[in-house]
Amino acid sequence: MAIFLSSSVQEPAADPSSIITTANATSDVAQILYGLSIRGVRAKAVESHAKRSHTKNADRFQIVLESPTLIQRQIANESIAGIWDAILEDYQRAITRDGCCYFCQYDVASLPKPTTCPECGNNLDSYAARRAMRDGQKL
Ligand SMILES: [Zn+2]
After folding, report:
1. What residue numbers bound the domain in which 63 lies?
2. For the whole model, what pTM was predicted?
3. How far is the CA of 116 from the centre of ligand 1 (A)?
4. How far is the CA of 82 from the centre of ligand 1 (A)?
5. 82 and 105 both lie in a single domain
6. Which residues are bridge partners to 22 per DSSP?
7. Ligand 1 centre from 126 Cα, in Å?
8. Ligand 1 centroid from CA 95, angstroms
9. Which of 53, 70, 77, 90 is the most buried (most CB within 10 A)?
């Protein structure tokens, strides 16, 4: 499957409501666009204009709807968690092998799922947290 990455700096920033998710790796972008396309959602990746700050990881790409109709938006929003689940298959939870929060090392082994870490407040079952763990980043 071909992926077209728009890199024009003149392109206006995407309408926030048409942004489905963000990604850093082009392999993730490819899987997201594929996952959306098989659900009938037309989307493209554009390079993010967000400035990288020291406190937060800014993703390189925004996945935006090509035709931001209500139904396309609904399907995309309902699909995106499942698409990330497939990408993050090997990272089911942002928890270390010894049962600690990936972000702050608090012992969460005995807590029920889904788990919001009582120490740092991160939802350890969210795809954002799982992505951060896979990529060796902080949230
Ligand atoms: Zn924590």
Report:
1. 5-87
2. 0.77
3. 8
4. 24
5. no
6. 62
7. 13
8. 9
9. 77
